[in-house]
Amino acid sequence: MRSEQAMNIHAFDLAGERLAALPSGALHWPAMELLCVSDLHLCKAERMARRGGEMLPPYETRDTLGRLEADIRSTGAATVICLGDSFDDRQAAEAMEEDDRLWLARLQAGRRWVWIEGNHDPGALGFGGTYLAEYRARALTFRHIAEAGAESGEISGHYHPKARISARGKTLTRACFLTDGARLILPAYGTYTGGLPWTDPAIRRLFGVGARAFLTGTKVHAVPVP
């Protein structure tokens, strides 16, 4: 990772492994040359249009893939883990435009690619890579939804956590990582993704005292969770 980018990340330890939260919402594990992203929700605009919802500009897939490509290049990742809900649903995956399919294939070329199954995209979807319910490496376990009472070293997504803080008279909302040193929840990486407040009971019940949030943006900022 280039030095100027390294200044904007936040390095931390989880289950004895040194990890780095990136400003984009991706997680880097340098020792394993591994990049992890969660909740891409690719092709969400297509799914919303199909179901008669709000019409959104159909560019979110390209924006998400562009940011992912930049993170892969900056980290030199040899392994990429997509931590579930990579597509907004199975039909959205099938409707992915050919240019975007080719772009994804180029990103996968020459590296290990692991798709973790999510609640939006269970099972194999016909793209390159390996499809798993969860992935284990050393002391870390990658799964889509955090499990109550899970062993130390669990990394998950699903909740799209967002922090709400006040600074200099302004209220800011940022997607964030959440950790208490035993488990980690990643923010949603996709361009069109909402979020759940970091104080929501569904999230807070998963963490012990002293939980921290790593706020995404141009630079990662670590703050205590209320």
Strand content: 25-35%
**Number of strand segments:** 16
- How many domain modules? 1
Q: How far apart are the first and last residues' alpha carbons, in Å?
A: 32 Å
What value does the Rg take, in angstroms?
17 Å
- Helix proportion of residues, in percent? 10-25%
Low-confidence stretches: none
Task: Give the structural class.
Answer: alpha/beta
Largest β sheet strand count, sense and barrel closure = 9 strands, mixed
What is the mean pLDDT? 87
Q: Helices and strands, in N-to-C order? A: HEEEEHHEHHEEEEEEEEEHEE
Q: What's the shape?
A: globular
Annotation field: number of helices: 6
Provide a brief overview of the structure:
The chain has 226 residues and is of the alpha/beta class. It has helices at 3-6, 44-50, 60-75, 90-94, 98-108, 201-204; strands at 10-14, 17-21, 27-29, 34-37, 79-82, 112-116, 130-132, 134-137, 140-143, 154-156, 161-167, 170-179, 183-185, 196-197, 212-215, 221-224.
